[in-house]
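[[Local backbone shapes]]
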Amino acid sequence: MIQTPEQVDLILLALPIETLPKTAPRTISRLQATGIKTYGDLLEYYPFRYNDFSITSQIGNVQAGETVTVRGNLESIKTVPTRKRITIQKAVLRDETGVIELVWYNQGYLTNTLTPGSVVSVSGVVESQGKKKSMKPMEYELLATADSKTKHTGRIVPVYPTIYGLSSKTILEKIFFVLDLLSHANESIELIPEDILKEHGLMGLQKAYETIHQPTTMREVSEARRRLGFNELFIRILSSKMIKERWSKEQTTAPIKLTSDDKKRVQEFIKNLPFVLTDAQKRVTEEVLEDIQKTVAMNRFLQGDVGSGKTVVATIAAYATHLQKRQTLIMAPTEILALQHFATISALTKNTDLKVALQTGAHKDITSQKKAGEYDLIVGTHALISAKYDFRDVALVIIDEQHRFGVKQRALLKKKGINPHLLSMTATPIPRTVTLTLYSELDLSVIDELPVGRKAIKTYLTPTAKRADGYRWIEKQIKEEKTQAYIICPLIETSEKESMSSIKAVKAEYEHLKKNIFPMLKVGLLHGRMKAKEKEQTMAEFNAHTYDILVSTSVVEVGVDVPNATIMLIEGSERYGLAQLHQLRGRVGRAEKQSYCLLFTTSNNYNPSRLRFFAKTHSGLKLSEFDLKTRGPGEIYGTQQHGYSDLKIADLSDTNQVFSAKKAVDQLLKNYSVDELPKLNAIMRSYQINLIEKN
């Protein structure tokens, strides 16, 4: 417990909230339930809106319709029962200019809280009936004297996210306590040097905390939000830069030194591929091959749209690694995606001596220590992490859809080798600002063009009235063009995990489509609750054209390359972020045939402009940037990802702020040593530990 103001310093922000004085245990537990564990967390529990009660007036001067604050002496208060089991609390408030009636509903406790003779300040909208004035208070507070300073009325009052039993007023009271402690602290809590703050026009950190919780104008709120958001971005980017610097110093490895003969064999392998690499694929391949020959372990992030050819780049790198008699591990988040990689890589390397294994929960090529050393490339799921066998000499680790794996999982996979080179891949289109903020510890490669001959997928937002016509068109296309179609059903709930109700819904839709809509076609069903072998068999059958239509839930990675599938119908398309729709759309259009995407909706209450924008836009990057601006960062991936959870107020769609924070980080690293800034250094260590623990 803090005893005196002299003892108050930076340590107070790390104090556990259990030390808050005059706070009931149930309030402590409710604060903890919201994620507030320390005084610092409390200060960073930001308001989501504000009530402007800053206009104060004498009672005799108020007008009907005004939102105003008045204060005076409470003359009387009583509870009036009604026939409808509703009670009305009526009070009379008087000042030297007049009286006003205060009216509450079903708040009987007020007759004990507000007693005649009390000095009360109330805020709300004034009403009138003739000469009589009344108010239904939106907020009130008891004052010691008529001149006492107010906290909840007579000012701009912050409103906080709440849970049952924890009011916004209680949260504000506790924040006021911490702010008061800070005002008596004998040290500054500032993290960023004064010259950098001045150049970027930022207020001090303590002032920002005070302002966002105790503003006097809404303009002040904007300035405080700018500083606090800048702070989050600054810490995140600086942390990434420091991780990258530490990686370059500590992650030394045995380089994959390619001889001139090896380089010729790699070029021969590329030449014999059944297609010509795009310029983007060539550029990225060169970057990766250059990296793996260094003594510092590669830590590269490869971003490219669905179908852009990331797997080919990974295969070339694995082949080069194999030429030095070393192993490559490739991990995918789902069994189906692992199967896709295994099939693709096996086909690409069939005329080489590179041996490929598959290691998943349902399929295990590696069953002994001897077999672990026989293969040059092992494709798998989490089973790679849990494998009890040591691999021969892992020099390259490739992680697909890396955002679906936490830091600890990636670290465990890397332990399969001695500081192996790491290539992380994603098909999720990620805006520049997000990449800069969340992945600046990585070297970035982007495949920004599709293979030659791929046609743009024609996308249509189909009105409900034309649903039947859409079904008939699909049937005609399948029969005349001998093509296939996906029909994706959305999850009923917002969770990424399929509930039984969602499974029942997709099964019901499957039966409906099979019996009533497409009785003359062969329809298959796929969902996440099926056993791995069943999913594998279903996808293999679809690939072999056993089915004309595959009905699936959206959480299943329907990533097997089925060139003959040219139609993607997405039910409930209004529920998805644009980046997710883009991922699904990318499952067709994987050959030279013209492909189509039909967007069906299940609700009339949605904004069609988003889906119209999607229908005419084929750049994943443009779509993700649009989604970021209109729906927020949580929509970029299908799930709330680890990179966003630590950003409470920063706006990743604010390009200027993100690049301003990056510039400030570069300035700091050029002119200062983080080790010489103890407060910032401590925050960096704490931040990086917390980030790893969350993942």
Observations:
- DSSP finds 24 helices and 21 strands in the chain.
- The radius of gyration is 31 Å.
- Residues 218-250 form the longest helix (33 residues).
